[in-house]
What we know:
Layout: E1 7-9, E2 25-31, H1 33-37, E3 47-52, E4 63-66, E5 73-79, E6 88-95, E7 99-102, E8 115-116, E9 124-125, E10 129-130, E11 141-149, H2 151-155, E12 166-170, H3 171-174, E13 183-184, E14 186-187, E15 194-202, E16 208-215, E17 218-219, E18 225-228, E19 234-235, E20 239-240, E21 251-258, H4 260-264, E22 276-280, E23 295-299, E24 302-312, E25 320-327, E26 332-333, E27 339-342, E28 349-350, E29 354-355, E30 366-371, E31 374-378, E32 386-390, E33 397-398, E34 407-411, E35 418-422
Parallel strand pairs: 2-9, 2-10, 11-19, 11-20, 21-28, 21-29
Antiparallel strand pairs: 1-35, 2-5, 3-4, 3-6, 4-5, 6-7, 6-8, 11-15, 12-13, 12-16, 14-15, 16-17, 16-18, 21-24, 22-23, 22-25, 23-24, 25-26, 25-27, 30-31, 31-34, 32-33, 32-35
Amino acid sequence: MKTFSQAVSILGLAAALVLPASAVQVTFQVNMEVQAALGLFDPGNDLVYIGASFNGWSETASQLFPTTTNALVYEGTFEVGAAGSFPNYKFIKNRFGGGVQWENNGVGEGGAQNRFFEVPAADSVLPVAWFNNITNVNVNHQLVTFQVNMSVQIAQGTFDPDNGTLWIAGDAINDWDVDISPISLTRSLSDTNVWTTTLDVTNLVGSTVSYKYILNSTWETIDNRTFIMPSTATNLPVVFFNNVTNTASPIPLTFSVNLGVQIARGNFNPENGDVVEVRGSFLMGPGSTWLGGFVLTNDPANPLIYSGTIVDTNDAVGSQVQYQFVLNNGTTWEATGNRIATLSTTNAVAFPTAFFSNIPDLGAVTVETIAASEAALSWTAGPRVRLQSSGDLTSWNNVADTEGQAAVNVNLNENARYFRLVGP
Protein backbone atom coordinates (compact mmCIF):
# COMPACT_ATOMS: atom_id res chain seq x y z
CA MET A 1 0.00 0.00 0.00
CA LYS A 2 1.32 3.45 -0.87
CA THR A 3 2.59 5.54 2.04
CA PHE A 4 3.20 9.25 2.46
CA SER A 5 6.54 10.24 3.85
CA GLN A 6 9.02 12.99 4.46
CA ALA A 7 12.49 11.99 5.63
CA VAL A 8 14.96 13.99 7.71
CA SER A 9 18.53 13.12 8.72
CA ILE A 10 19.43 13.97 12.31
CA LEU A 11 22.58 11.92 13.09
CA GLY A 12 25.30 14.17 14.42
CA LEU A 13 23.10 17.21 15.09
CA ALA A 14 24.66 19.69 17.45
CA ALA A 15 22.65 21.77 19.83
CA ALA A 16 22.63 25.46 18.99
CA LEU A 17 21.01 28.57 20.35
CA VAL A 18 19.50 30.81 17.68
CA LEU A 19 18.27 34.23 18.71
CA PRO A 20 15.45 35.57 16.52
CA ALA A 21 15.94 38.98 14.95
CA SER A 22 13.70 41.62 16.47
CA ALA A 23 10.84 42.84 14.27
CA VAL A 24 10.79 46.42 13.07
CA GLN A 25 7.69 48.63 13.34
CA VAL A 26 6.82 50.54 10.18
CA THR A 27 4.07 53.12 9.67
CA PHE A 28 2.22 53.00 6.33
CA GLN A 29 0.28 55.95 4.90
CA VAL A 30 -2.05 56.20 1.91
CA ASN A 31 -3.87 59.25 0.54
CA MET A 32 -7.48 58.57 -0.50
CA GLU A 33 -8.35 62.10 -1.69
CA VAL A 34 -8.40 61.26 -5.39
CA GLN A 35 -10.40 58.08 -4.81
CA ALA A 36 -12.99 60.11 -2.89
CA ALA A 37 -13.10 62.81 -5.59
CA LEU A 38 -13.65 60.15 -8.26
CA GLY A 39 -16.54 58.67 -6.29
CA LEU A 40 -14.57 55.49 -5.66
CA PHE A 41 -14.25 55.90 -1.89
CA ASP A 42 -16.68 57.07 0.80
CA PRO A 43 -14.78 58.04 3.97
CA GLY A 44 -18.01 57.90 5.96
CA ASN A 45 -18.61 54.20 5.22
CA ASP A 46 -15.60 52.60 3.55
CA LEU A 47 -12.55 51.16 5.32
CA VAL A 48 -8.86 50.95 4.40
CA TYR A 49 -6.54 48.01 5.08
CA ILE A 50 -3.12 46.81 4.03
CA GLY A 51 -2.55 43.31 2.66
CA ALA A 52 1.05 42.16 2.85
CA SER A 53 3.48 39.30 3.03
CA PHE A 54 3.94 40.06 6.73
CA ASN A 55 0.23 39.44 7.52
CA GLY A 56 -0.37 36.52 5.16
CA TRP A 57 -2.02 38.84 2.59
CA SER A 58 -5.00 39.15 4.90
CA GLU A 59 -7.78 41.47 3.78
CA THR A 60 -8.83 42.34 7.34
CA ALA A 61 -5.87 41.86 9.71
CA SER A 62 -4.22 45.28 9.34
CA GLN A 63 -6.56 48.27 9.28
CA LEU A 64 -5.47 51.87 8.64
CA PHE A 65 -7.24 54.87 10.19
CA PRO A 66 -7.58 58.57 9.28
CA THR A 67 -4.78 60.80 10.56
CA THR A 68 -5.52 63.78 12.80
CA THR A 69 -4.10 66.21 10.25
CA ASN A 70 -5.91 64.92 7.13
CA ALA A 71 -9.03 62.77 7.34
CA LEU A 72 -8.36 61.35 3.87
CA VAL A 73 -4.83 60.20 4.68
CA TYR A 74 -4.97 56.81 6.37
CA GLU A 75 -2.15 55.28 8.40
CA GLY A 76 -1.28 52.22 10.45
CA THR A 77 1.82 50.89 12.22
CA PHE A 78 2.70 47.19 12.05
CA GLU A 79 5.54 44.76 12.72
CA VAL A 80 6.98 43.93 9.30
CA GLY A 81 9.90 41.59 9.98
CA ALA A 82 13.63 41.83 10.45
CA ALA A 83 15.86 44.60 9.13
CA GLY A 84 17.07 43.89 5.59
CA SER A 85 14.00 41.90 4.56
CA PHE A 86 11.78 43.01 1.66
CA PRO A 87 8.06 42.78 2.51
CA ASN A 88 5.56 43.16 -0.34
CA TYR A 89 2.21 44.87 0.18
CA LYS A 90 -0.80 46.63 -1.33
CA PHE A 91 -3.48 48.91 0.04
CA ILE A 92 -7.09 47.66 0.13
CA LYS A 93 -10.45 49.40 0.09
CA ASN A 94 -13.35 47.62 1.78
CA ARG A 95 -16.35 49.44 0.37
CA PHE A 96 -19.69 49.42 2.14
CA GLY A 97 -21.93 47.34 -0.12
CA GLY A 98 -19.16 47.03 -2.71
CA GLY A 99 -16.79 44.47 -1.23
CA VAL A 100 -13.01 44.27 -1.03
CA GLN A 101 -10.96 46.02 -3.72
CA TRP A 102 -7.18 45.69 -3.88
CA GLU A 103 -4.83 48.09 -5.61
CA ASN A 104 -4.06 47.15 -9.20
CA ASN A 105 -1.05 45.10 -10.17
CA GLY A 106 1.88 47.27 -11.20
CA VAL A 107 1.79 49.75 -8.31
CA GLY A 108 5.27 48.79 -7.16
CA GLU A 109 8.51 50.51 -8.02
CA GLY A 110 9.34 50.19 -11.72
CA GLY A 111 5.92 48.70 -12.42
CA ALA A 112 6.40 45.75 -10.05
CA GLN A 113 3.17 43.92 -9.23
CA ASN A 114 3.29 44.82 -5.49
CA ARG A 115 4.67 47.68 -3.45
CA PHE A 116 7.83 46.74 -1.56
CA PHE A 117 10.65 48.23 0.51
CA GLU A 118 13.73 47.18 2.45
CA VAL A 119 13.06 47.08 6.17
CA PRO A 120 15.35 49.59 7.92
CA ALA A 121 17.25 48.93 11.13
CA ALA A 122 14.95 51.12 13.24
CA ASP A 123 11.24 51.88 13.41
CA SER A 124 10.27 54.09 10.46
CA VAL A 125 7.47 55.96 8.69
CA LEU A 126 7.09 55.38 4.94
CA PRO A 127 6.25 58.29 2.63
CA VAL A 128 2.57 58.90 1.90
CA ALA A 129 1.42 56.85 -1.10
CA TRP A 130 -1.63 57.42 -3.31
CA PHE A 131 -4.07 54.57 -3.76
CA ASN A 132 -3.30 52.95 -7.15
CA ASN A 133 -0.66 55.70 -7.58
CA ILE A 134 -3.34 58.04 -8.94
CA THR A 135 -2.46 61.53 -7.73
CA ASN A 136 -4.72 63.66 -9.91
CA VAL A 137 -8.46 63.52 -10.51
CA ASN A 138 -7.84 64.45 -14.14
CA VAL A 139 -5.02 61.96 -14.52
CA ASN A 140 -6.29 60.60 -17.86
CA HIS A 141 -9.90 60.31 -19.09
CA GLN A 142 -10.55 58.36 -22.27
CA LEU A 143 -13.61 56.89 -23.96
CA VAL A 144 -13.24 53.10 -24.18
CA THR A 145 -15.74 50.96 -26.13
CA PHE A 146 -16.33 47.40 -24.89
CA GLN A 147 -17.84 44.72 -27.16
CA VAL A 148 -18.89 41.16 -26.34
CA ASN A 149 -20.40 38.55 -28.65
CA MET A 150 -23.32 36.71 -27.02
CA SER A 151 -24.23 34.37 -29.90
CA VAL A 152 -23.06 31.20 -28.11
CA GLN A 153 -24.90 32.09 -24.91
CA ILE A 154 -28.05 32.82 -26.92
CA ALA A 155 -27.76 29.50 -28.81
CA GLN A 156 -27.30 27.61 -25.55
CA GLY A 157 -30.31 29.28 -23.97
CA THR A 158 -28.28 30.86 -21.15
CA PHE A 159 -28.96 34.42 -22.34
CA ASP A 160 -32.30 35.86 -23.41
CA PRO A 161 -31.47 38.76 -25.75
CA ASP A 162 -34.81 40.46 -25.00
CA ASN A 163 -34.95 40.10 -21.23
CA GLY A 164 -31.47 39.10 -20.02
CA THR A 165 -29.02 41.49 -18.38
CA LEU A 166 -25.37 41.96 -19.31
CA TRP A 167 -23.14 44.13 -17.15
CA ILE A 168 -19.48 45.07 -16.99
CA ALA A 169 -17.36 45.69 -13.88
CA GLY A 170 -13.70 46.49 -13.33
CA ASP A 171 -11.17 48.21 -11.13
CA ALA A 172 -10.91 51.53 -13.00
CA ILE A 173 -14.45 51.23 -14.36
CA ASN A 174 -16.68 51.06 -11.29
CA ASP A 175 -14.50 49.50 -8.58
CA TRP A 176 -15.91 46.05 -9.41
CA ASP A 177 -19.25 47.19 -8.02
CA VAL A 178 -22.43 45.91 -9.66
CA ASP A 179 -24.63 46.52 -6.63
CA ILE A 180 -24.14 50.27 -6.26
CA SER A 181 -23.17 51.21 -9.82
CA PRO A 182 -24.11 48.53 -12.40
CA ILE A 183 -23.10 49.31 -15.99
CA SER A 184 -25.26 47.72 -18.68
CA LEU A 185 -24.32 46.82 -22.24
CA THR A 186 -26.82 47.20 -25.08
CA ARG A 187 -27.30 45.44 -28.40
CA SER A 188 -25.21 46.72 -31.29
CA LEU A 189 -27.07 48.17 -34.25
CA SER A 190 -24.56 46.69 -36.72
CA ASP A 191 -24.38 43.13 -35.28
CA THR A 192 -27.35 41.79 -33.30
CA ASN A 193 -25.14 39.21 -31.56
CA VAL A 194 -22.83 41.87 -30.10
CA TRP A 195 -23.52 43.88 -26.94
CA THR A 196 -21.56 47.08 -26.42
CA THR A 197 -21.03 50.13 -24.21
CA THR A 198 -18.71 53.13 -24.27
CA LEU A 199 -17.36 54.34 -20.93
CA ASP A 200 -15.24 57.25 -19.73
CA VAL A 201 -12.38 55.41 -18.00
CA THR A 202 -9.91 57.20 -15.72
CA ASN A 203 -6.45 55.77 -15.15
CA LEU A 204 -2.77 56.39 -15.80
CA VAL A 205 -1.61 55.97 -19.40
CA GLY A 206 0.09 52.59 -19.73
CA SER A 207 -1.47 51.12 -16.59
CA THR A 208 -3.39 47.84 -16.67
CA VAL A 209 -7.18 47.99 -16.38
CA SER A 210 -8.92 44.77 -15.31
CA TYR A 211 -12.56 43.91 -15.92
CA LYS A 212 -15.15 41.16 -16.50
CA TYR A 213 -18.63 40.75 -17.94
CA ILE A 214 -21.59 39.59 -15.84
CA LEU A 215 -24.55 37.69 -17.37
CA ASN A 216 -27.74 37.65 -15.28
CA SER A 217 -25.68 38.16 -12.08
CA THR A 218 -23.23 35.37 -13.08
CA TRP A 219 -19.63 36.52 -13.52
CA GLU A 220 -17.34 35.18 -16.22
CA THR A 221 -15.26 32.33 -14.77
CA ILE A 222 -12.12 33.13 -16.76
CA ASP A 223 -9.25 35.20 -15.38
CA ASN A 224 -9.79 38.95 -15.37
CA ARG A 225 -9.78 40.57 -18.78
CA THR A 226 -7.27 43.39 -19.14
CA PHE A 227 -6.29 46.22 -21.44
CA ILE A 228 -3.57 48.86 -21.31
CA MET A 229 -4.95 52.32 -20.55
CA PRO A 230 -4.64 54.38 -23.74
CA SER A 231 -4.06 58.10 -24.22
CA THR A 232 -6.80 58.37 -26.88
CA ALA A 233 -10.33 57.03 -27.35
CA THR A 234 -10.19 53.28 -28.06
CA ASN A 235 -12.45 50.48 -29.31
CA LEU A 236 -11.54 47.15 -27.72
CA PRO A 237 -11.82 44.03 -29.94
CA VAL A 238 -15.00 41.94 -29.86
CA VAL A 239 -14.70 38.98 -27.46
CA PHE A 240 -17.02 36.08 -26.63
CA PHE A 241 -18.58 35.87 -23.18
CA ASN A 242 -16.35 33.61 -21.03
CA ASN A 243 -14.24 33.14 -24.20
CA VAL A 244 -16.58 30.33 -25.27
CA THR A 245 -16.76 30.36 -29.06
CA ASN A 246 -18.62 27.06 -29.55
CA THR A 247 -21.93 25.72 -28.29
CA ALA A 248 -21.83 23.20 -25.47
CA SER A 249 -21.07 19.54 -26.18
CA PRO A 250 -21.41 16.47 -23.94
CA ILE A 251 -17.85 15.95 -22.64
CA PRO A 252 -17.02 13.15 -20.15
CA LEU A 253 -14.89 14.55 -17.33
CA THR A 254 -12.93 12.28 -14.96
CA PHE A 255 -11.82 13.64 -11.59
CA SER A 256 -9.37 11.98 -9.18
CA VAL A 257 -8.17 12.94 -5.70
CA ASN A 258 -5.64 11.31 -3.39
CA LEU A 259 -7.00 11.23 0.19
CA GLY A 260 -4.07 9.45 1.84
CA VAL A 261 -3.00 12.50 3.85
CA GLN A 262 -6.57 13.27 4.93
CA ILE A 263 -7.11 9.65 6.04
CA ALA A 264 -3.85 9.63 8.00
CA ARG A 265 -4.74 12.90 9.73
CA GLY A 266 -8.23 11.69 10.62
CA ASN A 267 -10.05 14.18 8.40
CA PHE A 268 -11.57 11.42 6.26
CA ASN A 269 -12.61 7.99 7.45
CA PRO A 270 -14.36 5.83 4.83
CA GLU A 271 -14.96 3.14 7.45
CA ASN A 272 -17.32 5.55 9.21
CA GLY A 273 -19.19 6.38 6.01
CA ASP A 274 -17.30 9.54 5.03
CA VAL A 275 -17.73 10.51 1.36
CA VAL A 276 -15.87 12.74 -1.06
CA GLU A 277 -17.55 14.63 -3.90
CA VAL A 278 -16.43 16.91 -6.68
CA ARG A 279 -18.56 20.02 -7.18
CA GLY A 280 -18.18 22.63 -9.87
CA SER A 281 -19.43 24.69 -12.78
CA PHE A 282 -20.11 21.50 -14.77
CA LEU A 283 -23.08 20.74 -12.52
CA MET A 284 -25.08 23.81 -11.55
CA GLY A 285 -28.56 24.60 -10.30
CA PRO A 286 -30.65 27.78 -10.21
CA GLY A 287 -28.62 30.93 -9.59
CA SER A 288 -25.46 29.18 -10.82
CA THR A 289 -25.08 27.34 -7.51
CA TRP A 290 -22.88 24.25 -7.57
CA LEU A 291 -24.88 21.09 -6.94
CA GLY A 292 -23.62 18.28 -4.73
CA GLY A 293 -24.14 14.58 -5.03
CA PHE A 294 -21.43 13.57 -7.54
CA VAL A 295 -19.66 11.11 -5.22
CA LEU A 296 -16.21 9.67 -6.03
CA THR A 297 -15.27 6.08 -5.23
CA ASN A 298 -12.00 4.21 -4.75
CA ASP A 299 -10.57 1.02 -6.20
CA PRO A 300 -9.42 -1.74 -3.79
CA ALA A 301 -6.23 -1.97 -5.84
CA ASN A 302 -5.45 1.68 -4.97
CA PRO A 303 -7.70 2.57 -2.02
CA LEU A 304 -6.28 6.06 -1.44
CA ILE A 305 -7.36 7.34 -4.87
CA TYR A 306 -11.00 8.36 -5.27
CA SER A 307 -12.28 9.05 -8.78
CA GLY A 308 -15.37 9.31 -10.92
CA THR A 309 -16.61 10.38 -14.37
CA ILE A 310 -19.50 12.70 -15.17
CA VAL A 311 -20.74 13.96 -18.56
CA ASP A 312 -20.53 17.77 -18.70
CA THR A 313 -23.30 19.21 -20.87
CA ASN A 314 -22.79 22.83 -19.82
CA ASP A 315 -19.45 23.54 -21.47
CA ALA A 316 -17.72 23.60 -24.84
CA VAL A 317 -14.21 23.68 -26.24
CA GLY A 318 -12.59 26.81 -24.80
CA SER A 319 -14.71 26.80 -21.65
CA GLN A 320 -13.08 27.01 -18.24
CA VAL A 321 -14.29 24.43 -15.73
CA GLN A 322 -14.03 25.40 -12.06
CA TYR A 323 -14.32 22.74 -9.37
CA GLN A 324 -13.40 21.66 -5.85
CA PHE A 325 -13.21 18.38 -3.98
CA VAL A 326 -15.54 18.38 -0.97
CA LEU A 327 -15.64 16.06 2.04
CA ASN A 328 -18.71 14.84 3.90
CA ASN A 329 -21.60 16.48 2.09
CA GLY A 330 -20.12 19.96 2.05
CA THR A 331 -18.69 19.97 5.57
CA THR A 332 -15.10 20.48 4.39
CA TRP A 333 -14.08 22.29 1.19
CA GLU A 334 -10.55 22.56 -0.12
CA ALA A 335 -8.61 25.41 1.47
CA THR A 336 -6.88 26.28 -1.79
CA GLY A 337 -9.96 27.66 -3.55
CA ASN A 338 -11.37 26.67 -6.91
CA ARG A 339 -9.40 24.52 -9.31
CA ILE A 340 -9.59 25.74 -12.93
CA ALA A 341 -9.12 23.80 -16.18
CA THR A 342 -9.73 24.85 -19.78
CA LEU A 343 -11.41 22.32 -22.08
CA SER A 344 -9.48 21.86 -25.33
CA THR A 345 -11.39 18.94 -26.88
CA THR A 346 -14.83 17.35 -27.04
CA ASN A 347 -13.23 13.98 -26.29
CA ALA A 348 -13.21 12.52 -22.78
CA VAL A 349 -10.96 14.50 -20.42
CA ALA A 350 -9.18 13.04 -17.38
CA PHE A 351 -7.88 15.73 -15.03
CA PRO A 352 -4.60 14.95 -13.19
CA THR A 353 -4.93 13.31 -9.79
CA ALA A 354 -4.70 15.98 -7.09
CA PHE A 355 -4.09 15.91 -3.36
CA PHE A 356 -6.94 17.37 -1.31
CA SER A 357 -6.11 21.05 -0.64
CA ASN A 358 -2.82 20.34 -2.45
CA ILE A 359 -1.30 18.85 0.71
CA PRO A 360 0.94 16.00 -0.52
CA ASP A 361 2.67 14.96 2.72
CA LEU A 362 2.23 14.68 6.47
CA GLY A 363 4.33 17.69 7.38
CA ALA A 364 7.76 18.15 8.90
CA VAL A 365 9.51 16.39 11.75
CA THR A 366 10.95 18.83 14.29
CA VAL A 367 14.23 17.75 15.88
CA GLU A 368 15.73 18.84 19.20
CA THR A 369 19.08 17.39 20.26
CA ILE A 370 19.06 16.11 23.85
CA ALA A 371 22.51 14.49 23.93
CA ALA A 372 25.14 13.28 21.49
CA SER A 373 23.17 10.07 20.88
CA GLU A 374 19.62 11.11 21.74
CA ALA A 375 17.08 13.45 20.16
CA ALA A 376 13.48 14.50 20.74
CA LEU A 377 11.29 14.36 17.64
CA SER A 378 7.86 15.97 17.27
CA TRP A 379 5.31 16.32 14.50
CA THR A 380 1.63 17.00 13.79
CA ALA A 381 -0.30 14.05 15.13
CA GLY A 382 -2.93 12.08 13.26
CA PRO A 383 -4.73 8.86 14.18
CA ARG A 384 -2.96 6.97 11.39
CA VAL A 385 0.33 8.91 11.31
CA ARG A 386 3.38 7.04 12.59
CA LEU A 387 7.15 7.51 12.60
CA GLN A 388 9.65 5.28 10.77
CA SER A 389 13.45 5.16 10.89
CA SER A 390 16.17 4.02 8.49
CA GLY A 391 19.92 3.76 8.41
CA ASP A 392 20.43 4.04 4.65
CA LEU A 393 17.07 5.16 3.12
CA THR A 394 16.62 1.74 1.49
CA SER A 395 14.59 0.02 4.21
CA TRP A 396 12.36 1.52 6.87
CA ASN A 397 11.13 0.30 10.26
CA ASN A 398 8.28 1.55 12.38
CA VAL A 399 9.33 3.37 15.54
CA ALA A 400 7.40 1.63 18.30
CA ASP A 401 4.35 3.28 19.86
CA THR A 402 4.29 6.35 17.59
CA GLU A 403 1.03 5.86 15.67
CA GLY A 404 -1.39 8.56 16.72
CA GLN A 405 1.28 10.28 18.81
CA ALA A 406 2.97 13.66 18.31
CA ALA A 407 6.43 13.17 19.85
CA VAL A 408 9.04 10.61 20.85
CA ASN A 409 12.61 10.46 22.16
CA VAL A 410 14.94 8.29 20.08
CA ASN A 411 18.46 6.93 20.38
CA LEU A 412 20.60 7.77 17.39
CA ASN A 413 22.66 4.99 15.84
CA GLU A 414 23.68 3.63 12.45
CA ASN A 415 20.26 1.98 12.06
CA ALA A 416 18.37 5.15 12.93
CA ARG A 417 19.92 7.99 10.98
CA TYR A 418 16.83 9.07 9.01
CA PHE A 419 13.22 9.51 10.05
CA ARG A 420 9.97 10.00 8.17
CA LEU A 421 6.23 10.15 8.75
CA VAL A 422 3.98 7.65 7.03
CA GLY A 423 0.25 7.10 6.84
CA PRO A 424 -2.09 4.34 5.71
